[in-house]
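new request in #modeling-help
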Amino acid sequence: MDFINLIVQLLDATVRVSVPLLLACLAGLYSERSGIFDIGLEGKMLAGAFAGAATAAVYGSAWLGALAAMAIAVFLALVHGFASITHRGNQIVSGVAINFIAAGSTVILGQAWFRQGGRTPSLSADARFNPITLPGAEALRDVPVIGQIYSDIISGHSLLVYLAFLMVPFTWWVLFRTRFGLRLRAVGENPAAVDTAGISVTWLRYRAVICTGVLTGLAGTYMAVSQNAGFVKDMTAGKGFIALAALIFAKWRPVPAMFACLLFGFLDAFAIRFQGIAVPLIGKVPVQLMQALPYILTVVLLAGFIGRAIPPKAGGAAYVKER
Amino acid sequence: MASVAIGLRGINKSFGAVRANRDINLEIPQGTIHGIIGENGAGKSTLMSILYGFYQADSGEIFVDGHKASIDSPNDAIAAGIGMVHQHFMLVENFTVLENVVLGAEGSPLLNAGLARARSELQRLEEEYGLEVDPDAVVENLAVGLQQRVEILKALFRGADTLILDEPTGVLTPAEADHLFRILRKLQEEGKTIVLITHKLREIMAVTDNVSVMRQGEMVATRKTAETTVEELAELMVGRRVLLRVKKGEAKPAEFRLSVKGLTVKDSRGVPMVKDVSFDVRGGEIVGIAGVAGNGQSELIEAIAGTRSAETGEVLLAGKPVDVTGSADPAELRQRGLAHVPEDRHNVGLVLPFEENENSILGYHAQAKYLNGPFLNIEAIRDDARQKIEKYDIRPADCRLKTANFSGGNQQKIVLAREMEQDPDVLIVGQPTRGVDVGAIEFIHKRLIDMRDQGKAVLLVSVELDEIRSLSDRILVMFDGRIVGERGPDATEGELGLLMAGIEAKEAAE
């Protein structure tokens, strides 16, 4: 029974830590499918987390926090768009710049406004997205296995968790069942084909980066206003980059992206749960090694276990009408 | 006289200092196939891109069916019933045929209705025009001819009455091109107007009703195809009389310069492409290798030039062996007097983002005259490049220009100038005039004859039978990796054609 409890706890934690990865990964999917590489997911999440926590702290509303987070992330996404779509700048450089701006400005503004060493004030329960208990969860709690799965793993998360997982089928639907999705996929493969079909490449790509902004904003909101009770310096801790790795691992498809994020989330949860615990035969594994596990796996997976991941053909290149 | 489908009046367009179109007037009667011919860079594609709304004219008017139309984007052109098949296909390669056809004309925000409508419309077009394509096939898996058909379907699906085709046969095999012409005839019978842009005279004569000639941005003449000749059109295109067949004197073959014995070469998949090939080339003669593309000619010249290892066999250069099965490398061969104009100038012959002068010494850059101690002598290189530009009439005459900005013919001249000016003893030339226009072809052919007359050994590989026949002193025909016959320059096209198809002359006679 202990073993089952352990598994349930581990999976529950997996869901929690996967959510920011998943939102960021889907965010990246919109942008990269349109041909705009976005290494600045990390920065947009971080800025979103800060804006969300700061707004929620000041106005006492998680919803206002979410709006502010999305607004600032969309703004940064548009900056990236302005540099790389309108001015045809280098997309990697622009993304890196956004990461630096976010990392620096969140701490400076946090210190200037709240004087807590770059943190935002701790949020009260009212100003956060709190866990929701799904109907019947309490009643089913004592049913072995199924009851536990329902009440502990599926129930008891905040609204944003459910939203994140609903975004997976929604994104699939958008990509493969709507006009916008068809054009989005086309512009990432061959923008000239889109242009000659009488569709604006620029406007299409801007819409894609706006989607990216909204989702990274939500990812940041989740971290600072739901998972934690406030913003802490560098709280994204490389999740934006892990999300990019998951995106490549999933070959830019929404459903595999979810599984990739759950896998990375599981490793993270595993590392947290088992740090400092003695493993038979090996003895106590250093905490650092456990924490490094997800990153080691990233390297191993990307180094060849996934087969050929073919990125959108026009990815990373600005569209210039040829003479 | 039919009504006018497309009218252009006073069209002007400049790109920076270059006037791509000057005061163009043109009327295209409804229901005809109208050819627009001109050399590369004459402004044909620019004019059609203006008609399709891809560029905006600086001045001038466009009339569609007699009404003035303002075409500011491809959307306007599509709405006016104009469709375009681009030279480089505008297809999303990992989409299905159906998805490519509906892209931009989906009809509603949700896809399903549009896809269903497109499917039934494709069915109808297929029956009406004989344009068969599997709507669920992924485009990248289709042959080039079929991809082109998808482009035509895209235009028809959008309700095009006038169809512009930009250099449609450049990527097609002769059989595919014939099929395309049959489709165009069919479309014409159904009342569509076709505009065919090309620089190939033969196509104009084969399929068009009328032809307009462009030269250096101007529309110089419009003729009824039936009332003109290839010679007249060539002269109008180039602006002077063109010799479609070069004159040359008797060959004076001298000593053996290049000998190939029992050469066998495999391609990168490990399939033998050249099988036990032997021949000699003497100084003062041009030996042409004819054959349908893909019968081992490419692998043969790569092996001789040292860019691909041979399995077995030997090659003698001026009587001395070349280690073709092992360590022969192009740099060593160059030093020993062998120059190579590769078949694929874009990927092998040139570095397109480099400046012209850099490409003009590539491979010879370690020679003392281009060096200044350990550094490149930039001034010497540029002077050298300027001389070549003048001698080979490379245009524009700017050795600092990026090579990618030269036309195909001028790029080819850059490669030829580089290789010929090293004064090699043996010159291997692959497809010297592929994608090159009439005027430049004449020039390149003359230079090759000059090389021969200077006593050089020239090995010419071309899929253009006319070229082989007009230049070669001896013709070797390659089929399935073997030399299946040798003929003199007076061999008929039919005789060579049979050899190229692998039919023995004796069998053919029976």
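bot summary: The beta strands of chain A are 278-279, 283-284.
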